[in-house]
Amino acid sequence: MNIDGCISEDIHTSGGGEIPPCAGLTSNALPKAQSCKKAESSHTGVSTSYALSEDPPHWYALRCTYGREKTAYEYMTAKGITAFYPMQTTVKLIKGKRKTVTESLLPNIFFAYGTLDQIKHFVYDNVNLPFLRFYYRHTHVGSRIEKTPMIVPNHQMESLRIIYAAETDNTIVSLAEVPKFKKGQMVRVTDGAFKGVVGRVARWQGQQRVAVVMEELVTVVTAYVPSAFLEKMNN
Predict the structure, then answer these.
(1) 3-class DSSP state for residue 118?
(2) What is the distance between the alpha carbons of residues 196 and 194, in angstroms, rounded to a whole number?
(3) In principle, which of 14, 26, 175, 211 could form an S-S bond with 181, CB 3.0–4.6 Å?
(4) What are the backbone angles phi and psi of residue 203, rounded to the nearest 5°?
(5) In whole angstroms, what is the distance from residue 189 CA to residue 232 CA?
(6) What is the pTM (predicted TM-score) of this model?
(7) Using an 8 Å Cβ cutoff, are 173 and 181 in contact?
(8) How many Å apart are CA 90 and CA 38, to the nearest integer?
(9) Dist CA 196 CA 109 (whole Å)
(10) What is the chain's pLDDT, residue by residue, as a tens digit (235 residues)?
């Protein structure tokens, strides 16, 4: 799935505690878009200090039913939670007329930063957010399958930020698994528009690319990256 265009996004940055390394995410990634405009905004709020906490903060992947991720995002950020909700502004033909539409880049998905207890407070709020759930990581333990809330590592969020900010054509967002990237060599991009991205390299659609693979969730792929810009890392 080629994606060509631009996105806008809202990222809420809390005033207290550790600031996660992914502010200002922008991108050229637009699924099924005919044309688009880019817009950016930021908000400042207050959150709880995490000093001396036995439950350290992480980025969690959250899902919403019925396309209500914006509602959940706005509710949580109003309560002081740091969150990332990527949106895209596209121009579509609706009943023969061109209209500008803002919609989620990752349907039903957004990311929130906090301790597990903090995020649970919202996920288990069946009064205000009955449509909000964790994305879970599934692991086999003997004959059982255990599930735990999906944590997105900081380096993956930072790599996503870089890909979104690059504003180059032919980046790709895939909600389906892209098998060839799962076994690709782990690399760091050392130069160019994607400098700093850490991911797996493979040839796809005739070009060498680097992908950030969030297993069971989404794969975000750079445009072409020359071999001279790649540094091998341990898998």
Answers:
(1) helix
(2) 6
(3) 211
(4) -90, 130
(5) 9
(6) 0.73
(7) no
(8) 9
(9) 24
(10) 333 333 334 444 443 344 444 433 333 332 322 222 333 333 333 333 444 457 899 999 999 988 899 999 999 999 999 998 887 777 888 888 888 888 887 889 999 999 999 999 999 999 999 999 999 988 888 888 888 999 999 999 899 889 878 877 788 888 888 888 988 999 999 999 999 999 999 999 899 999 999 988 899 999 999 999 999 998 7
134, two tokens: 């964790």
Which amino acid, residue 55?
D
The residues facing 104 across adjacent strands are 87
Asked whether 105 and 31 are in contact (CB, 8 A), the reply is yes
Report the candidate in 43, 109, 127, 49 with the shortest Cα–Cα distance to residue 77. 43
Which tokens in the block code for residue 132? 């909000």
Q: What does the alpha-carbon distance between residue 124 and residue 132 come to, in Å, rounded to a whole number?
A: 8
As given in the structure block, the two tokens for residue 218 are 């989404």
